[in-house]
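Reading group handout, session on sequence-to-structure problems. Before we discuss, look at one worked example. The prompt was deliberately terse, the way you'd type it at a terminal:

> structure Flagellar hook-associated protein 2

The input record follows.
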Amino acid sequence: MSMRIGGLASGMDIDQLVSDLMKAERMPLDKLTQKKTFLEWQRDDYREMNKLMFDFDSLIFDGVGKQGTFIQKTISSSNPDAVSVRNINSVSDFSGSVEVHQLAKSATMRNRIPVTLEPDKLLSEQGVTGTQTFIIRAIKPNGELQTQTTNAKGETIEEGFKLTFDPSKETLNSIISKINEKSGVNAFFDDATNQISFTAKNTGNVVSPTDLPEIELVDVAGTFLKETLNFHVNNKQAEANGVGTIGQNADLTYNGLRITRSTNNININGFELTLKKETAAGESVSFSSSPDVDKILETVVKFVDKYNEMIEKMNSKVDEKRYRDYQPLTSEQKEAMSEKEIELWEERAKSGTLRGDSVLQNGLNQMRRDLYTVVEGLTGVSQLAEIGIKTSSNYLEKGKLIIDEDKLRKAISDDPNGVYKLFNGATSNSEGIVDRLRETLKGTMESIEKKAGKSSSTNQSFTIGRNLENIDDRISDFERRLLDIEDRYWRQFTAMEKAIQQSNQQSMFLMNQFGGGM
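And the output record:
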């Protein structure tokens, strides 16, 4: 950089002159910076549109896209204290009656005599020596017993919970904790009586003629269960000696048919009966279901509201006016304005970033077709209008949906499964409104992502990002050029100052010469 002399000889404000000249030189750079800012605004607005569509897609998936939404039911029971009823996946309404003769119960057993162990003291310090191994077999959820079996290679497979432990590393409480965590029984130590109980985690008993126990204890190495803890080998033996009970199946009459189950939670045709207590002789509990119209209606209304909110914002962006006289402000322009002035200016400068965007417009048009094209293969309702959802007659609302709540409520009450099929198709191979909408949303979001990327994208992976990088390169090149130009101006003004100074010196010399000769 050359030495800069600032107006000492000429009396001119060289700093200001160079600054004013550079303002003119910087104008192309300011335009590049403004273009970059506008592209960043456009990128962010595209991403906002994608978030709107993503949120709507998620709401569809969790709402009208799930069969569970349309099988919600209101269920009544004449005696919910004895029998409660819950719908699981029944599409049709159901009703029936139940008499509870006997509840299912778990098998139990406790040790013959109290133990002499301290629960938190190492077992090796209380007389238990050598590696111990035991197996606990218990009734399975299906009512069968875990047993010892042989695989195809002739190898013995011990079904059940098998534990091998070193007494020098375990306490009674740590062993009980491991049993509770992984075995088919719940173990409990009562420090008041020093007794231990095992209760099968599953209810029911093993059906004759096998006559097997529901809980079986086997000492494989050592005698920890039999002698240290003083247990019988199974709950049937314990029951015979007054320290155990046999598992019990539920016994009930359902719609006139006497049945037994190993559990008190009984699934029948897509709904669940929970038996809570035995009913009096001859007493039956009646129950029935009907669609939970309010909950289903609420989900459909949320779908419509979210759709309307989305297309309103998308339409506003597509139709937003572009104020070309209001370009993004430069740093110098902002310094000369108040915060309110900047806010008002940028409100117009940011307007119209997506005006007339073809991707958004095509997506909006396709979604309208998705909503109103007939769903093929349905024997009942096949269009939204038939359940009380139609387009607003006000053309300014650009395709917003309006709901005739009475008509929609009646459609849900009469045939909730038909409404489900309208949204999701008659079969797994047919497309409903949900499938069509989600496909359109996916395609539109992918197209926008190619233009504007997402927050985790690199600039090189989308169009606007590549344009931004190109502008950054041009800005860097131009800034280097401006430094050279500014340096050239200063060299020129410095040369001028030197010339003026030299001229002044010559003038002074001549004046001195003329003055000296007089």
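Points for discussion. First: The CA atoms of residues 89 and 270 lie 5 Å apart. Second: The chain is about 45% helix and 20% strand.
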